[in-house]
Amino acid sequence: MANVLPEAFLRAIADGFPADFLTREPGELQEYGRDWTRVYSPAPTAVAFPRTTDEVSRLLALCDQHRVAVVPSGGRTGLAGGAVAARGELVLSLRRMTRMDPVDLLGNTVRVQAGAITEAVHHHCAEHGLTWPVDFASKGSSQVGGNIATNAGGVKVIRYGLTRQWVLGLQVVTARGQVLELNGALEKNNTGTDLRQLFIGSEGTLGVITEATLKLAPLPGKQDVFLFAVPDVAAVLRLFREARRAPLLLSAYEFFTDKCLARLQRHRKLRSPFEAPSGCYVLMEAEGKDPAEVEGWLGSLFEKGLVTDGTMAQSPSQASELWALREGISESLSATGLPHKNDVSLPVANLEAFCSELDAVFSARYPGWEIALFGHIGDGNLHINIMKPEGMEKAEFLAHTKQADPTMFELVRKHGGSISAEHGIGLLKRDYLSFSRSPAEIEMLRTLKRALDPNNILNPGKILEV
Questions:
Q1: Is the pLDDT of residue 14 over 70?
Q2: CA-CA distance, 24 to 36, in Å (whole number)?
Q3: Does the pLDDT value for residue 69 go beyond 80?
Q4: DSSP SS3 for 210
């Protein structure tokens, strides 16, 4: 695979595309060659900025002809190295593909280009009383194509499920430049294997998503937002068990530890609503049914000793302030140190046992180290962040964590979990895929890759080596 762009390829780009289509400016290469992982140094040869599916199609046909490796790039908010161009690849940025069509109010759908920002889609649909219920902290910069390519999760999975449940149709360009229209706006289509699902979650290794028809839901009713203080992770799970039986329709059940709050306060200077510190905090969003019932349920939490403190937002601005305590964590951890991140999921019923055994792993592997936990407990997703100790060199830190990861992943496998809940495999977890996928599954994934991308130009080396 070429690390230097062939002259014939560059001539074809100059002859067949707009003057601003391709850049090799060093600052742009650095910016578009990395994602939020910050582990791998970016080293792309160029960045392409198509505006249409036709331009993507013609570009990929040229790349396949000249064996130019391509890294599809969205908002680059992933945390597994899936959008990193570290080996001289060409970055294909969807930044300019932001068109959003009018909302179909009969079918409750909207078709958008892959570069549309998630939050922009929310605003586009909200004026019609509808929403695309895919929501996460990075919604202000993440793009629809990247959400779909990674089957993103986020904070509302407990109510709405993963991204794949809200995608009706896809327009995809294959490695050879062929444009596929998959399923359109059909709710029902029983004509064999659903090819659209091959590309959802494939991290740009099988094709480049250029447009999508999104399924929409009615905007939820009035959402109450609560923040509770509890002593530890076990108490987080006890409270969740109680919340499942509450007179509420849960939309989100998030938690974070005191270590996360401390980093957040260092970075963003946000205040905790509680005077006394606590080991863990739970942010809950729910649609209340009977206000009197909800009030009675809240009172029972204190009577049963399930929470040590709590507050309920009294206005939209207060709700935003409480959500900021949860949504600013990932950014704050990276801004105040170097975190080694793991994004794992467990069956909800196994979370308590897993977390208990995880403590033993931490004590043995990282004595005295700072461990920051947060996540979407409601759907079994934990974000585990080991912070680099002050004074330790980055290389030494990464060597320690690389040695310890298999121990943690073995524990995940023991409890029937996944080594990646929502950020994908990318480069960061490629060597550990076997902890969640069987040899037969991995060979089937290789077979798909070879069939759809025989020259291995699309995001080569991500998820698995072919």
A1: yes
A2: 21
A3: yes
A4: strand
Rounded CA separation 447/450 (Å): 5
Q: What are phi and psi of 24, to 5 degrees?
A: -125, 20
Residue closest to 279 by CA, chosen among 374, 380, 384: 374
Contacts of 268 (CB under 8 A, 6+ apart): 324, 328, 332
Short-list 107, 170, 35, CA closest to 462? 35
- Tell me the H-state helices in 67-199: 118-126, 144-149, 157-160, 196-199
pLDDT, tens digit, 9 for 90 and up, residues 223-259: 999 999 999 999 999 999 999 988 889 999 999 999 9
CA dihedral 385, 389, 390, 396 (to 10 degrees): -110
**For 158-202, how does the pLDDT look when each residue is reduced to its tens digit (9 = 90+)?**
999 999 999 999 999 999 999 999 999 999 999 999 999 999 999
Could you report the per-residue pLDDT of 43-63, keeping only the tens digit for each? 999 999 999 999 999 999 999
For helices 394-414 and 351-365, give the axis angle rounded to 10 degrees.
150
Q: How far apart are CA 437 and CA 434, in angstroms?
A: 5
Q: Which long-range contacts (CB under 8 A, 24 or more apart) does 401-407 make?
A: 401/340, 404/361, 404/365, 404/366, 405/342, 405/432, 406/432, 406/435, 407/361, 407/365
DSSP per residue over 382-405, as a string?
Answer: EEEEEEPPTT--HHHHHHHHHHHH
Q: How many CA atoms lie within 13 A of 48 on its CB side?
A: 29
Is residue 365 predicted with pLDDT exceeding 90?
no
Q: CA separation (Å) from 355 to 92, 154, 245, 384?
A: 40, 21, 23, 11
Q: Give the tokens for residue 330.
A: 């990932």
Which neighbouring-strand residues pair with 47?
23, 91
Q: Is the pLDDT of residue 2 over 60?
A: no
Alpha-carbon gap, residue 55 to 32, rounded angstroms: 19
Spatial separation of the C-alpha atoms in residues 12 and 3, rounded to whole Å:
18
Distance between CA atoms of residues 420 and 409, nearest Å: 10
The answer to whether 116 touches 31, Cβ cutoff 8 Å, is: no
